[in-house]
Amino acid sequence: MDREDSLERLGATTDEPADLFEHFEQRSVGGRTHHVLTAARHGVERGTVIVEESDAVVRGYPSVPRVLVLDPGLPSFFEGTDSVTIEEKLDGFNVRIAVAGGDGDVPLAFTRSGYVCPYTTARARDRLPLAAFFAEHPTKVLCTELIGPETPYTTHDYEGVDSHEFRVFDVRDRESGDPVPVADRRSLCAEYGVGQPRWFGRSEPSAAVETVRDAIDELDAAGREGVVVKSADGESMVKYTTESQHHAELAYAFSLPFEHGRDFVFSRIVRDAFQAVESGDSDDRLRERARDLGESILHPMVSTIRDVRDGDPVGERHTVRGDPDAIDALFEHLDDQSLTIDRRSDRREDGKRVVEFVKVAESSRDRIQYYLEGGTRDE
Amino acid sequence: MDREDSLERLGATTDEPADLFEHFEQRSVGGRTHHVLTAARHGVERGTVIVEESDAVVRGYPSVPRVLVLDPGLPSFFEGTDSVTIEEKLDGFNVRIAVAGGDGDVPLAFTRSGYVCPYTTARARDRLPLAAFFAEHPTKVLCTELIGPETPYTTHDYEGVDSHEFRVFDVRDRESGDPVPVADRRSLCAEYGVGQPRWFGRSEPSAAVETVRDAIDELDAAGREGVVVKSADGESMVKYTTESQHHAELAYAFSLPFEHGRDFVFSRIVRDAFQAVESGDSDDRLRERARDLGESILHPMVSTIRDVRDGDPVGERHTVRGDPDAIDALFEHLDDQSLTIDRRSDRREDGKRVVEFVKVAESSRDRIQYYLEGGTRDE
User: Fold this and answer.
1) What is the CATH number of domain A72-87+199-241?
2) Which residue spans adopt a coiled-coil conformation according to this UniProt entry (chains A, B) (predicted)?
3) What is the mean pLDDT of residues A92-107?
């Protein structure tokens, strides 16, 4: 890898290769060497991958900022932009799919942090027309969410998704990260028949406030996550989420209280409070929101403490379904990441292997056990 | 100050004076130089003060560990101890009162972090028989809580306390920190007629579980903080708090959401969850606790966001009452600590000066303002 050259191609905001490359980590993937940026640095996104042998770059997906109030959040963020688009934000597993080698190489699914997930890669090859797409667009990356109840990472239920499916929410240049404009991207996806997030419309930024409010009400009632608003060229984007999502994420975090950062918890509460103020919640509505928030926090944590007390397993529960080889590769991958996996069942259904497992939450289990045994907290 | 000598007198767990003294800060108090330890280090408590001119040491008050479950928390913590005492823990301002100079010097009130608070010092001289006590016990320190609605630091209401009062919860050797045994300390306080925290009894550690449970139920119903359980010799101690205190502290933290550490919030929720599990809360009782928790979190934060939106002041509101000179000294002291004070009223009542003021919560005010103006959050 030519560092000077890579630095320039990445458009990093430093002239000193070492400034950037000290944050890269080397991983071996299918006989090739991947250099992976483990944190956003010098204008280059976290999860950016450079493949040693081909010198191909797969740029990380940018972090999407969030507004806490729609008005003036949207008009202010998109000042000077003629037109914005509103699409659903899905609660799934964000992977970039790209052909990162030379000719004849196969597409790989890269996680947000730049790992190649063998399970998601296998599912993507099965479910998406990757050969046809990359034959025409070899230097593009498909930015997708893997959604549904049967994935090794998330479990959000979506109506009509029984196992797992892909939704393509962005198509970008693999190396520069430049997005295909939103309307073109939606046509392109339609052309290849791939799933996309729901479309809520296109308008001036100030008119988008009302559209987003209505969309959020509808999504909230259905227990869905929220929206992403983008400039029509796809360059700028901002997200906004539903009350039910805030509460669901709190419930998740407090079900494994010692695995998650304190900031995770705090930020969801902050979102909910600003939403309550902007929505002009009545006293009754505010009380209802507060009570639901409290139940989302306390019930899952109490339930987990009881599980530890009763000797039941504690952790994220997942079900995966796929080819036996891909399932084996997944467990090797999880093992490489030092996760402790407790397999609860392993069976065949219609030629697929179906495994239910728990990612054991060792911190939560051990800390709770310690306190239940009378351990003290120094504060 | 002779560092080698001080190191030995403090019983520090290092032989190298610089290891400890690099964490000391120098402050000038009434013409004397105080060296103050700003964080617990090498077995020496935070807030420990060495007075330059007299070489007197005022040892910091030790941090009190907490159990999250009473059973087996108490028997386990006090294993090998014959007898423990149970006293109320009060929600006030913890100050140590000591004569830290030589002969003829006056008693000073030291905060937890080793500052001398001029207001608390003046109130202590007014309300406590300090001259008589220190004439007999010049090397002791009175460990007290300043409680009541009219203090510059806390505002917890206690029945029968209209303005502010002192409660002595410990008497220790000023230099070694060795406590007077609990029963002797209570007799001593009674002898001098100074207020003390409520006494709930003395028993074997395992029998204390039930006593504490009953005490906590009673204190919770009265909206009071909790208990401290100590070995009879006063050497070991542990605390446990009520649901109403957890929720009150969350309400306080979320009323100033960007002033407080995320850990503050998290730890109160953890306490509540373990208490719910140990109490064997029924589904209804658990739901009630969860809803109350949610209301404690969301309502104060929404209220503060609305205040910022409406241009109302945001911060802790306090009322102080005392001699005009002491009030002036208090505001100078708060000013020295870089606090922004917004005086809301300033009047005389029965020869005392009464000032209502807000400690302006600049972080919360500014962050909330930024988000309300449409500022984004990068997550």
Assistant:
1) 3.30.1490.70
2) none
3) 87
CA-to-CA distance for A358 and A317, rounded, in angstroms?
Answer: 4
Compare CB distances from B379 to A267, A290, A374 and report the shortest one's residue: A267
Q: Which DSSP string corresponds to A279-314? A: HT--HHHHHHHHHHHHHHHHHHHHHHHHHHHTT---
pLDDT at B267: 94
Identify all chain B residues contacting A241, using CB atoms and an 8 Å cutoff.
Answer: none
Q: In which residue are the tokens 């918890």 written?
A: A265
H or E stretch covering B168: strand B165-173
pLDDT tens string B104-130: 689 999 999 999 999 999 999 999 999
Mutation target for A interface from B279, B309, B371, B373: give the one with most A CBs within 10 A: B371
- For residue B299, what is the nearest residue in chain A, using CA coordinates? A290
pLDDT band with cut points at 50, 70 and 90 for residue A148: very high
Question: Which of A270, A276, A296 is facing B257, going by the closest CB pair?
Answer: A270
Each residue of B292-301: pLDDT tens digit?
999 999 999 9
Nearest CA in chain B to A79: B374
Q: Which two tokens stand for residue A88?
A: 């659903």
User: Which chain B positions have a beta carbon within 8 Å of A289's beta carbon?
Assistant: 298
Decide if B72 and A287 are in contact by the 8 Å CB cutoff: no
Best mutation target among A371, A373, A378 (most B Cβ atoms within 10 Å) is A371
What one-character-per-residue DSSP string does A90-142 give? Answer: P-SEEEEEE--SSTTPPPEEEETTSPBPHHHHHHHHHHS-HHHHHHH-TTEEE
CATH 3.10.450 correct for A1-58: yes
**Inter-chain touch A379–B63, beta carbons under 8 Å:** yes
Taking the CA of residue A176 and the nearest CA in chain B, the distance in Å comes to 22
Residue of A169, A129, A165, A160 whose CA lies nearest to A150: A165
In chain A, pLDDT over 90 holds for what percent of residues? 92
Nearest 10 degrees: CA dihedral of A103, A109, A111, A117?
Answer: -110
